[in-house]
Amino acid sequence: MRILIVEDDVEAANYLAKALREAGHVVDHAADGEAGYELAATAPYDVLVVDRMLPKRDGLSVISTLRGEGNHTPVLVLSALAQVDDRVTGLRAGGDDYLPKPYAFSELLARVEALGRRPRQQEVETRYTVGDLVLDRLGHTVSRGGRDIPLQPREFKLLEYLMQNAGQVVTRTMLLEHVWEYHFDPQTNVIDVHISRLRGKIDKDFDKPLLHTIRGAGYTIRDVSR
Amino acid sequence: MTSLGKLFRTTAFKLALIYLAALTLASGAVIVYLSQNTASLLHEQVVETVDAEISGLAERYRTGGIRGLVATIDARARQPGASLYLVTDFAGNVLAGNVEGFGERVFAGESGELQRVSYAPFGGGAKREAFVRVFQLSGGFRLLVGRDLREHQFFRDLLSEAMRFWLFVIAALGLVTWVFVSRRVLKRIDAMSATGQRIMQGDLSERLPVDGSGDEFDRLAVSLNAMLERIEALMQGLKEVSDNIAHDLKTPLTRMRNRLEEAMRQGGEGAPSDDALSRTIEDCDGLIRTFDALLRIARIEAGSSDAALVDLDAGALVAEVAELYAPVVEDVGGSLTVEAASGLALHGNRELLVQAVINLIENALKYGTPQGADPLKVTLAVTRSGDGVRLSVRDHGPGIGAADRARAVQRFVRLEASRNLPGSGLGLSLVNAVARLHGGQLVLEDAAPGLRAVLELPLGKAKARKQGNEGGLGDGG
């Protein structure tokens, strides 16, 4: 993936660029709002990572200008302002996701990859398949190896989000945001408990586990044999 | 409160009542004084008239004898507005006069004494009151002269009627003044307090209306506005300072965390152990969380004007949180139940309210386990009380002593019992700040056994719509 980082803190930007390159991405860096806008407007990127507070030009104004010009590259907004209202203003300006500083790199990577892989086309898949696990979004049914698995509505939503991002790491915060629509760090292991219940339904009676824990990052659903 | 109830509670109403009472008392005193003076004046007049007549008639008797007296009395008795006359001989036979006999009782009195008697007018009619004086003439004749008291009676009636009319006028005037003044004052005060409410809900740019009349309300509004100006400037300053602190302190924290993560990824010769690194990262995260919570409380207490307030269904909100947390409670062998009244609307920020309820549940998880072998029991309830909604989280744990309850809500306060448990001491302060942002409060009650933490919030005006992602807080993921 080709990623542009717009961040004025050089050390943080260098670290981020290095870590993203290690994860196999191509990374450019701009140190202020003007330079960031120039690059984003001229070169094709898969994802922009934009800090809110930037010299010369505010991060949000860069995003809304790009959106106004018809540029719909997904944007992850970084900010030291971890408040509810700031998230809302960040998303209203055209950001696609919002991450408060300081962040865990694993969290940022998971979000950047989820943004970059978002289907651009309008059509949305109606069936997700991972190995022999099938989720039918229209019929709201889940089956594995031809056997129906009854799920609670929230469990269905949880599995749906995991399968939508199959093969990718999904963090606990991402799950809380997308499945429950809550935006904060839960102090307890609340997500782990729900995952373990889901695991009990889709993995327990089968030989090959599909739902994996990625230590220090989150969860992923994938068929390891492939 | 109804508008009538409001009218009764005004200062104008109390003032009107006091003035009414004072005026009534004063005019009552005047009337009593007047009527007493007039009565004694009239009385003197009667005495004088009667005495004058008696001496005149006695004179007539001396010069004209009984015959002359009878003739004079007959003549006088026929005049309109005449006094009362009666002449009897020694045997009590009436010789002349315009009234019926009074009987011996009246005549037995000492000569010259003024008596109040009732009599029947000559020719019949209702009994009347009169003042009479009996005068002994020589030869056994007795002369009675008196004045009818009808005039007195008439005057007294007139006065009491005037009094009643006057009272009515005062009451009517008082009522009109009260309604007029209090309506006018209430209108201004209501406008002011409505603005005050909006300001307290976070819109610090709002100002009190000034109509330019320069009256006392205008002067009050002007100085309050000056105060608000200053508060707004201070709040703005506070917000900027917190934003800057957040940015300035979190940037080095981010670097620190980044380096730790990098060190953990690379490892290698002489590197610190993964365990040490991940524990340091955990500490780092704890620091960040405390910091975030502090900033968040400060922001909420500053009354963020653009915090998205939407109509919510209280029951649905609590049920959603319960659904998220029920498995967590069950995992430690406990149970979480919801007792929610349906259809209770709240006007609030979903995110913050959810955070508040979650903080309360997490507290119940940490501190609410009953002593002994009983499992953890957490009850979420949504009830209506008057104009408010109570969102409560109850556990069956040891609770908080009455003395500690107020302290428990303060920042960084950790009660003795919880010192050795993880936490920042900010959980309840955040809940309290959220409650206050919504115009409510956090109340800790003794549920005997256990603690009941109650968010008392004002009932939303609008009917709750279907609750969901209406806060505009969801993202496009």
From TrEMBL, chain A:
The entry's DNA-binding region: 125-223
A GO cellular component annotation in the UniProt record: protein-DNA complex
Keyword set, alphabetical order: DNA-binding, Phosphoprotein, Transcription, Transcription regulation, Two-component regulatory system
GO BP annotations, alphabetical order: regulation of DNA-templated transcription
Pfam families named among the record's database cross-references: Response_reg, Trans_reg_C
CDD domains in the record: REC_OmpR_CusR-like, trans_reg_C
Domain Response regulatory: 2-116
PANTHER family: REGULATOR OF RPOS, TWO-COMPONENT RESPONSE REGULATOR
Name assigned to this protein: Response regulator transcription factor
UniProtKB/TrEMBL annotation, chain B:
Location of the HAMP domain: 183-236
SMART domains: HAMP, HATPase_c, HisKA
Major localization listed first in the record, in broad terms: membrane
Histidine kinase domain mapped to chain residues: 244-461
EC annotation from Swiss-Prot or TrEMBL: 2.7.13.3
InterPro entries from the UniProt entry: HAMP_dom (IPR003660), HATPase_C_sf (IPR036890), HATPase_dom (IPR003594), His_kinase_dom (IPR005467), HisK_dim/P_dom (IPR003661), HisK_dim/P_sf (IPR036097), Sig_transdc_His_kin-like_C (IPR004358), TCS_sensor_his_kinase (IPR050428)
Annotated keywords: Kinase, Membrane, Phosphoprotein, Transferase, Transmembrane, Transmembrane helix, Two-component regulatory system
Regions that span the bilayer: 12-34, 163-181
Protein name per the record: histidine kinase
